[in-house]
Amino acid sequence: MATVCPVASLHQEANPSRLKVGSVKTLAESSNLTSIPSHYAFTTSASSDQAVHSDHDDSIPVIDFSLFSSSNPDQRRKVVSDLAKACQDWGFFMVINHGVPEGQMKAMVDMLMGFFDLTEEEKREFEGKHVLDGIRWGTSFNTSVDKVFFWRDYLKVRVHPKFHCPSKPEGFSEVLAEYAGVVRKLARGLLKGISESLGLEPGYIDEAMNMDSSLQRLTANLYPPCPQPKLAMGMPPHSDHGLLTILMQNGIGGLQVHHGGKWVKIDPIPNAFLVNTGDHLEIMSNGKYKSVLHRAVVNNKDTRISIILSNGPSLDTVVTPAEQLVDGESNRAMYIGMKYKDFLELHQSSVLDGKSGLERVKI
């Protein structure tokens, strides 16, 4: 087995929970790094089920968003049906013809690359402490509880209902505000289709989840090249909180989805968004549409960046199964109601572990 570097120059104590943590980017760019520090190395059990399949039969569903506004009722019915199948069978799908200009997507990637290229000192200005802080830059997932660190730096920014943005690099605020707005519109359009696919009124989710005040958060993940990619993990298997997660990346693959009992590699489609259903859509649909485990792996050649906009209910919304989807003993409610804000605080305070957050509200 490959050797693992026992100590990193940027980390000063033996216990990972008490380390003074520097960014993975700085660590990866150090000239003498040939193996990963021991506290980034996952055991075999923690990174089990490594077999990855990319069979043609496992092609991820593709949804043509433009068909939702089609004047042809048959086309519109078909895309709603396709969306239902994608949510039920996969919980992940690609969205094409979404109306977001390619230049706008590229500008967002470039701006976030610019942020991660700031000096460590400059980025530390934006360190946050609490899950609901407007801006948080950091590394791993939650270094105060992580037993093993993830090969990932991140920037998390709340962009709705109140807009936040780092003051650097120059022009970041304008690019982010415009991008978040168009993606929020896309998310609400998809949620209308999902409402219909569940047999609800098109505006049901939008109204019940108070989407005018929805919590929308940008999470940008940077995965630098790793000298021992098979020993490290970018992000472990987990599901996402919220309703819909809308992701784009810089053309470098690394996302894997657990589907049909195996891990499936998702190759990026140029200028498409990857969308997945979150824990709160599972709750709202009473388990009909489930959030799905996914993970991020790293490589030893290319820097990957993934740019995620998570779209959740408002912080004060108590999310429960839709009444129309609960019918007596044969189809009783499977989840208790919990305020979205409380769910987020529970989620952030513990180790990231599969769908553990959702398990807390299961009946």
From TrEMBL:
Highest taxon, organism lineage: Eukaryota
InterPro entries linked: DIOX_N, IPNS-like_FE2OG_OXY, IPNS-like_sf, Oxoglu/Fe-dep_dioxygenase_dom, Plant_2OG-oxidoreductases
SUPFAM superfamilies in the record: Clavaminate synthase-like
One family name in Pfam for this protein: 2OG-FeII_Oxy
Domain Fe2OG dioxygenase: 213-313
PANTHER family for the chain: OXOGLUTARATE/IRON-DEPENDENT DIOXYGENASE (PTHR47991)
Family as reported in the entry's similarity comment: Belongs to the iron/ascorbate-dependent oxidoreductase family.
Name listed for the protein in its UniProt record: Fe2OG dioxygenase domain-containing protein
Organism: Eucalyptus grandis
